[in-house]
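Researcher: Next entry in the queue.
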Amino acid sequence: MKLVLAYFVFFGFISAFALNKWASIPLMLAFLIFINISLLSLKNNLVLINNKLILICVYCFFITTIISFLIQVNIYGFEVKGVTHTLSYFLIIILYYLSIETSLRAYNIPIEKVFKSISLGVIIVSIFTIIEFISKNFLMLDFDKFVLRPQVEQFNAIYNTGNRTFFRSRGTVEESGVLAMYLLMFLPFVIYYHRFIKFNKQKLILSVLIIVFAVLTTFSAAGFIEYLVAFSIVLFLALIRKIINGFTKIQILMNYFFVFILTLIGLYLLYTRVNFNFLQGILNKVTFSNESSSAGSRLERWNYAFSLIQSSPIFGHGPGIAALQNGTGSTSFYLEVLIETGIIGFTLILGIFLITLRYIFKIRGNVKYVYLFSFIIMSIHSVVISQYLFPWIWTLFAIISYHHNLSTKKKENFTSLGGRNGGYSI
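Model: Structure for this entry, 426 residues:
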């Protein structure tokens, strides 16, 4: 159990302190967990995942990936990069999804301990990020020199607020946008833990301030947009539920007060000339105003990806084809899956996404909104990154699947999470 909880603490360290570009801390921990759960499965005859639909999707995706790779070899010849990309699909899903979900069930780990470990990890990464930001921008220290990063050693991305230029933070990951994705995905876990599991008002406020400041130091356009979308959707669904169940008098007064404050802010912005130049860089990225016409631009990569999809739509061109043909990925997870494994592979991955989303709405209590927020952040950010290697994507699915499994076992009176290990009321 301790190994699994340690994984949740450190699965944000996908770049910092890695042994080499392949052996990151979460990958090594996940590999140890896989070995442990494999031995335990042989001894106790454990089932990988209870849900047959997800297993069917996973197995069929593996078969599709192999077929796509064989097509690639037949057309383009044997390439080592094609092999490594094919193996990475297998390893990532097995290590970060199947083995983690199976371990959670095997050790009957309470959800409260999962939330606690993830919350601790997010705080550690946030503090690390803030130290990096202060060191680079105010102390003028070469922070990267003190952190072992075998893959991307130097990171000098900057953001111009109009008044001054700042070095963007990347914390324990490869670049700023990915860091924003991680922090925003698991910010709700921290809030839920300190608000509903182990209530501590001071820790809640301090934790949120630390994480939000860390997010701001990334200057991530994608993070800014996905937060607004996720927050709006979750708030809307929560309000619908409240409307159906009915508001208390205090809640009604609070809603009126909230609307009143928003109205005042809107009127102030409307009738005063507020300088929003510091947001111009983010707006430029969102609207692609600062994209060049070079082959390295995101739009160029997407256009190239669409041309590849049209030429082989069913099984795709095989794993790693964009990097083989264009020297870089497509900068979109969805396009990457489409061009590599075709419509069949994409449909199977989409099936896993949709089944997981269905699980979220079947989970009892407000914790479903935590998972929904994280799921939306992950889904939106995957539009602008082509990496499927990040552990938190697949591990989020594993946690949701495990929690749904607990909910299914105790439909009538789901008050204890973790059985004999203890738990809490949701």
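Model: Residues 294 and 321 are 20 Å apart (CA to CA).
Researcher: Noted, moving on.
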